Structure formats: structure tokens, C-alpha cells
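I can't quite decide. Please look over this sequence plus C-alpha cells:

:::
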Amino acid sequence: MSRRDLREMKESGAFEKPTTVRFDSADHAWLTVYTHLLSGFANFVLAYDPAPVIDLLATKRKSAFDTPTSQAEESPDLAELSENLRDADNALRAAKEKRVRAEERYADLEKTNVFYPR
């Protein structure tokens, strides 16, 4: 509700009149079903014992913190393999950069007609 609506209601005297709320049979039926639905959910929650699940989660959480965080900590072979992979990747990157520089140099030499003098 906007300020303008509130101002108009105040000016019309709507706040001075008593508020009347009316329920018909459809409202009664809806409210009955809604309260039964809430009661059913509450009974379902109360009927379930959460203690075994809480104990299981506590055990799993404790064991999760006791295990190594990565396989590299367990296996030196895996750590060595990942290091070799990094070295190979760096060597490949350096070779690509060297090839690009050589191609640029070759293009510069072609422009100056070093290969085909007139």
C-alpha cells in the first residue's frame, strides 16, 4: 500500500470505522484443510528420530578431516608425475614461442628480399 493510498484512507475516515472480517463456508473449508496439512507435517517431523542420522554425519565429518586432502600427499609417484607434466608443458610453451619468433624473423627477411636479390 502506497503513502498516497494511506493518505486517502485517512482522509476518508476509513481508519475510524471498525474493521470487519467475514468468513464464508469456503474460507472455513480451506482453513480446516490447511490446519490438517500443517498438523500432518508436524506429526511427520515429530515421528522421525534424527539421532542416527546426526551420529552418522558426525562420524563422516570426523573421518573427512582425518583423510589426506589430495592423492599427491599419499603417492610420491603421482607428485613426480605431475611435476614432469608441468615441466613438459613449460618446454612445449617455450618451443611454441621460439617457433613464433623464428616465423616472424623469416617474414621480416622475406620483406627485405634477402633470399631473392634482384
